[in-house]
## 1
Amino acid sequence: MRLLYTYIARRLIMSTVLVLSVFVGLFLFFDLVTTLNHIHHGGFSRLFVILILGVPAKISMLFPMSALVGATLGLSSLAIDGELTAMRAAGVSVGRIAYAALRAALALGLVAALLGDFLGPKADSLARRAQAQAAGIGAAVNAQGLWLREGHSFVDIGEVLPDLSILRLTIYRFRHGRLAHELFAASGRYRNGRWRLRGVSETVFQEQRLIVKTSPRGYWKGIAPSLLSVFAVNPHTLSLVDLFRYIRHLQRNRQATTHYELVFWYKVLAPFTTAAMVLLAVPFVFRHGRQGGLGFRLFVAVVLGLIFYVFNRGFGDLTLLYHWPPLLGAAVPTLALGLICLWFLARAG
């Protein structure tokens, strides 16, 4: 039986990797079209780097649907060759075939999760830096924040929050190669063409002395928030641990966290979503074994995957709109799909 499980798993893994490669390539082409207008420096080499750095995030996003189409492709090829019929004649139940498919899906799901949790955040950080350079923004991103150059000044932004407000702004102004002025603000919001700062402290460096001024408010006509949006945290590219910590951080800064919590539960439930997708492919192939060819089955699988994707995201948007618990918004579509799959499996068996 172990040999049979390995054979089914190998066929499903190969077909899923093939489908995932096609989907990722398709989405990279869409990104290529949309990113071309924002590339002002670096040419196609920098554009290529930006696209490649987005691959780990796309693998995590597209894997559940790729598992459905890949499982349909792999099982359909077994059905066309008569191998599924031979397995059933030898006494192998539909449940055992579904178990073998689930083992393959879990192995690939683990790889996708590792890519999303370990490579995703680093790749996203590098991609944001490359996007800023391509857009003509002299910027550097590191663990201490975001550094920008503005004329003869250097700007250090500690953090860009989801609403595009900023924390821990420091501006260093130089004159004749020497530091002449330093401005620090605890936070800032963009209003009416300028930044309104809070908790401002200014230091003026003169020949023989320092002049320090403090004020509860201040203003800065600096970089527009539309450019800073490149450096706002994308919840889909954070690991589970980092996303959990960031949610707590936003709560301490009185920021809305519902969207981030929803993405957190999407990530937690992703393996279960993948399992439900693969389970859906098993009874679908058995029920339509004599109806239509491989193209028909793949077409229906893609349509089913798109329907679930739209329903899943749409229900999540309803969660944000009506302020339902984020866990409910992430779990209900997957739970509904799982129940439908179990019902189909019971009928197919």
Note: The chain has a mean pLDDT of 82.
## 2
Amino acid sequence: MRTRARVATERSDHRRSPESNRWGRAVRICIVTPAPPRSRTGNRLTALRWARILRDLGQRVDVTQAYDGSRCAILVALHARRSAPSIAAYRKRYPDRPVIVALTGTDLYHDIHRSRPAQRSLDLATRLIVLQRNGVDALPPRFRSKTRVIVQSVAPPRVLPSPRARSFDVCVLGHLRSVKDPFRAAHAARMLPESSRVRIMHLGAALSDSMARQARTEAARNPRYRWLGELPRWRALRVLAACRLLVQSSRIEGGANSICEALAMGVPVLSSRIDGSIGLLGEDYPGYFEYGDTPALADLMRQAEVSPAFYGRLRAACRLRALAVRPANERRAWRALLRELDVAK
């Protein structure tokens, strides 16, 4: 068994010149995420990216699964319910220090309306973070004034692969969980005419044996569907960049990493019409289908394949929205938040 320090914490000895703050030096910030080390889940990726940003802003950062009582000036916790014990423990030890709680889709659209620990996390937080602008409206009104929107950023590779000429590849990017409705694109592809060149490229780990069986069965029965499993992030981004579309079919999302990645790669998106996607893509985005509506998704995929005008509309809309996922914008948002908390001047 590993020691608690090795399991729970990724520490940085990285040093930069600290910005001026009320502590008079760089402060230590603890980022708590329930996702374990080496996990490729969205929460872990977000925590590690934020750690890099905060280090670039002159702070010292630990990334841990749970707050272990160590000294730090600020706690940043991802997930109001799952990180609730850490939030409560830190607030008990340091009642006057800042606590920043980042809200996931499960938090916003389920837990904060039903879970007492999640609700208490909202009360204990100094600031709340949501990952898209509609997330603010999902909160009870009394919490909105202390909520900030920080859209997740993506730095695309310098050289992007070109799409295949022989097929019209469509990417589904995300672990196989029921909330993601992971086989909706595969089912829609079955409805396309024989002449269609659509091929579904599904990237993500099966988080249960039943999901793995479904993926293998779908791949065996559906010649348009390929399940590539979990890939290193750099490879996943290359697969995404070589596709013509991303399909995001989830029931709930706080602000999907996959949409941000597609925008950064210049890959148009087809998405279920849910608040988390509308908050990133806008109410008037032309690529929505109602959640679970297989024929509507099939129709959108077919239009994108055969209609240059429709595909051009999708690309133009995504190009406009790509500005929001630039790394400089996310860094600027974190700098502004630290200034609010008197950590950076």
Note: The longest helix spans residues 42-56.
## 3
Amino acid sequence: MTISASDVRHVELHAGDHRREVLQRRFNDRPLLVFWEMTKACDLACFHCRADAQREPSPCELSTDEGRGMIDELAQLASPRPILILTGGDCLKRTDLMELIDYARSVAVPVALAPSVTPLLTVERMRELRQHGVKTVSISLDGMDAATHDAVRGVPGHFDATMTTLSQLKEAGFTVQINTTVMARNVEQLADIARILLAHHIDIWEVFFLIPTGRGTDVNASTPQQNEDICHFLVDASQYGFTVRSVEGPFLRRVNQQRHELTPGPATSDLYDRLHQRLAELLGAPTHDVCAPSAATRDGNGIVFVGATGDVYPSGFLPLALGNLRQSSLVELYRDNPLMRAIRDASFLGACGECSYRQLCGGSRSRAFAVSGQPLASDPACLLVSGASSTLT
């Protein structure tokens, strides 16, 4: 038995307290998602790139045989096995991509793909990927128009290419996920981006809250108040037929839970009012129930990241290597590393450690480390944390 992307969404969306406890026990044993940065090579020059991508691959990247070894280790786990997400850089730059996809399929390890939108992602390649069993593909969209998106991606004409690719991926039969990184230059465009998703029948919207790492250190991240507003907006947006998830913004789960339980939380500001009004203008009244997952995945909890040269991290945004696949077992590093255990136990410091939502949310461990140097510190991007800090000064 394997687990598909649709199975994951079902479990996440319908996870009550008991099911979340079951998931947490599973997360203690094995990750839900394994991200493999197959290469740092990429033909784009995105100014917020986590991978700090480069034009050519490194000679030290994991070999085909080493990739097979990692897949073998995942195949030995009980079902449902982790989903192996092939990313980069641009995973299409790996000449052995199809070979590794076929091998994973042969040992019942499910695979998803996160390629870059470049001339390598042709209709012919899409058909080949579908024929080899890939069901889910994610690509990035960071603006409502070429002026914003192309500036972020560093390639003129990339917005138009992305729009074409969205249509082609849907026509090829993929489950399509759109990744959007929130930053100062696009935060007011989120409702307009949601309209694009709806028009293209996109299945999943994954919104990234910026971490100051890689090239992202030079980008203005959203403030705690803006994050609160954005999360409320995202709950609204999830009522139009596509699933909404967050990366490095686990406070979305807290906001969703508070709204579901009618529990008072921090007040929103005029940013939320503008986004909410714009969403209603563009998309009309909500058409579905809220579709925002509640499974408490976060850096190191249900998630693990394998770098291009084999270093293993709690996530791609938390640059604390736990070990290397060339000397260590991926599963043992995930299960037994003291930092990973502390993250899964929600043994956080400060406001995050005292928060009643510490297991459901838990804050971004990557942001805590980037800002304070302590991965178990409180997440300064959460309004509950920044509010608690302001009352102490």
Note: Confidence is low (pLDDT under 50) at residues 1-15.
